[in-house]
C-alpha cells in the first residue's frame, strides 16, 4: 500500500514538474516572440512619416467632404442661375410686348385725335351744330317734323360725343400701357441686377470648388509622397530591428552563459542556488515615475502585439541613473534602437543569474570592466536611439531572458 502511495505521489510530482516546465517553455517562447517583434518605440523618421501620412489621410477625408459640399453648392447655384435666366428672358419678352403695345397705343391715340379733329372740322364747316339744330327746330312745320329734326340733332351731337369718348378711352389705355412698360422695365432691371449678383456668387462658388478640388489633388499627392516616405522609413527601421535582433541574441546568450557560470560557482562554493522571492532586492534606478510598464501591447504604428521588455521611467533629461545593486559592467555600446546601452551583471540573486540593462542614456559614467556599487551614479537620462523624450528603459534579465523589473523592487 505504501509503495503504491509512493508511486502515485511520484507520478503526481512528475506530472506537476512537467506542467511547470511546459508553462515555463510557453512563457519563454512568448517572451522570445515578443523580443523578436519588439518595436516599443520607433525611429523619429518613421514616427514623423507616419504622423504625416495619418495627417494627409485625415485632411484628405475633410477635403473630399469640402469638395462634395462645394460641388453641391455649385449645382444648386447653376440650377438657380438657369431659373433666373429663364425669368429674365420672360421679363425681357414682356417688356418687348409692352413696348410694342405702347407704340401701337400711341399710334391709336394719334389716329383717334385726328378722327376727332376731322369730325369737329366737318361739323363746324356747316356752322355751329347747336345753332343749326335749333334753327331746324324753329323751321319745323309739324310735330312729326320737329321730332325728325330733333333726331337729326341728336345724331350729330352723339357722333361728336362718341368721337371724344373713343379718344378718352385711347388715352386711358395708353396710360395703362405706359405703366405696364414702366413696370416691365423695372422688372427687367431688377432681374438683371439679381442675375449679375448671382453671377458673382456663381464665380465665388466655382472658385471655392476649384480651390477644394486643388486641395484634394494636393493631398492625394501628399498622401502618396507620405506613404512612400513611411515605407522607406519602415524599411529602414526593419533593417535596424534585424540588426538589433542579432545584437539581442548575442547579448542574451552572453548573459545566459554568465548566469550559468555564476550558478556553477555558487554550487561549487557550496552555496544554495534554490530560487526564492525577488521583491526588494533591487533599488529603483532613478527618482522618477513609471511611464510605461513591462508587458505585451500593441505597437502604435505597426499594430502588432509584442513585448515591451522593460519598464520606462520618467524623470527628465539629465536625471542621474544609479546602479540598482552591486555588479560589474559587462557591455556598453550604441544601438540604433536603444541608443546608449549599459549592461551590468549582478551575479546570482535568489537563485537566478541576474543582469540589468540601461537604455537611451545621454551618457554613462562607467565603462566595461568597472565594478559598481549599489546607488552609484552610472549615467544620466537621455533620449538617444528610438525615443520620443528623455527617459530610462530599464530591463532585468534572468538567465538571459527579460522579466518584469517591478518584481525586483
Automatic annotation (TrEMBL):
Has keyword Signal?
yes
User: What keywords are assigned to this protein?
Assistant: Coiled coil, Hydrolase, Signal
Enumerate the InterPro entries for this protein: Cell_wall_metabolism_enzyme (IPR050570), Dup_hybrid_motif (IPR011055), M23ase_b-sheet_dom (IPR016047)
One Pfam annotation reads Peptidase_M23
Domain M23ase beta-sheet core span(s) in chain numbering: 307-405
Signal peptide position in this chain? 1-18
GO-annotated molecular function: metalloendopeptidase activity
Q: Does the keyword Nucleotide-binding apply?
A: no
Q: Which residues form a coiled coil?
A: 18-101, 167-261
PANTHER family in the record, alphabetically? Answer: MUREIN HYDROLASE ACTIVATOR ENVC, PEPTIDASE-RELATED
Q: What is this protein called?
A: Murein DD-endopeptidase MepM and murein hydrolase activator NlpD, contain LysM domain
Q: Can you name the source organism? A: Nocardioides exalbidus
Amino acid at each position: 500500500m505504501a509503495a503504491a502511495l509512493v508511486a502515485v505521489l511520484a507520478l503526481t510530482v512528475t506530472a506537476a514538474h512537467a506542467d511547470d516546465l511546459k508553462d515555463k517553455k510557453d512563457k519563454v517562447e512568448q517572451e522570445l516572440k515578443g523580443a523578436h517583434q519588439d518595436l516599443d518605440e520607433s525611429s523619429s523618421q518613421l514616427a514623423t512619416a507616419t504622423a504625416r501620412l495619418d495627417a494627409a489621410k485625415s485632411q484628405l477625408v475633410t477635403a473630399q467632404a469640402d469638395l462634395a459640399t462645394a460641388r453641391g453648392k455649385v449645382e444648386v447655384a447653376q440650377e438657380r442661375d438657369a431659373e433666373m435666366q429663364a425669368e429674365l428672358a420672360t421679363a425681357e419678352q414682356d417688356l418687348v410686348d409692352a413696348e410694342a403695345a405702347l407704340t401701337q397705343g400711341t399710334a391709336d391715340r394719334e389716329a383717334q385725335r385726328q378722327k376727332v379733329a376731322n369730325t369737329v372740322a366737318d361739323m363746324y364747316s356747316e356752322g355751329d351744330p347747336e345753332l343749326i339744330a335749333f334753327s331746324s327746330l324753329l323751321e319745323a312745320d309739324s310735330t312729326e317734323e320737329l321730332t325728325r329734326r330733333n333726331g337729326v340733332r341728336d345724331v350729330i351731337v352723339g357722333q361728336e360725343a362718341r368721337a371724344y369718348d373713343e379718344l378718352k378711352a385711347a388715352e386711358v389705355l395708353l396710360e395703362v400701357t405706359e405703366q405696364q412698360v414702366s413696370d416691365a422695365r423695372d422688372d427687367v432691371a431688377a432681374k438683371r441686377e439679381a442675375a449679375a449678383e448671382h453671377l458673382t456668387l456663381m464665380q465665388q462658388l466655382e472658385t471655392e470648388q476649384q480651390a477644394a478640388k486643388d486641395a484634394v489633388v494636393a493631398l492625394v499627392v501628399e498622401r502618396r509622397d507620405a506613404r512612400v516616405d513611411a515605407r522607406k522609413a519602415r524599411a529602414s527601421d526593419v533593417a535596424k530591428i534585424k540588426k538589433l535582433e542579432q545584437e539581442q541574441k548575442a547579448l542574451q546568450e552572453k548573459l545566459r552563459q554568465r548566469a550559468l557560470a555564476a550558478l556553477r560557482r555558487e554550487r561549487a562554493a557550496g552555496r544554495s542556488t534554490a530560487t526564492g522571492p525577488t521583491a526588494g532586492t533591487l533599488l529603483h534606478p532613478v527618482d522618477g515615475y513609471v511611464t510605461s510598464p513591462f508587458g505585451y501591447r500593441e505597437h502604435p504604428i505597426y499594430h502588432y502585439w509584442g513585448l515591451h521588455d522593460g519598464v520606462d521611467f520618467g524623470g527628465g533629461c539629465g536625471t542621474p541613473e544609479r546602479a540598482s545593486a552591486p555588479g560589474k559592467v559587462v557591455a556598453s555600446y550604441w544601438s540604433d534602437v536603444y541608443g546608449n546601452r549599459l549592461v551590468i551583471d549582478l551575479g546570482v540573486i535568489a537563485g537566478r543569474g541576474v543582469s540589468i540593462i540601461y537604455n537611451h542614456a545621454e551618457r554613462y559614467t562607467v565603462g566595461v570592466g568597472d565594478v559598481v556599487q549599489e546607488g552609484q551614479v552610472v549615467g544620466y537620462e537621455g533620449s538617444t536611439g528610438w525615443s520620443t523624450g528623455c527617459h530610462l528603459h530599464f530591463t532585468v534579465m534572468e538567465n538571459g531572458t527579460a522579466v518584469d523589473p517591478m518584481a525586483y523592487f
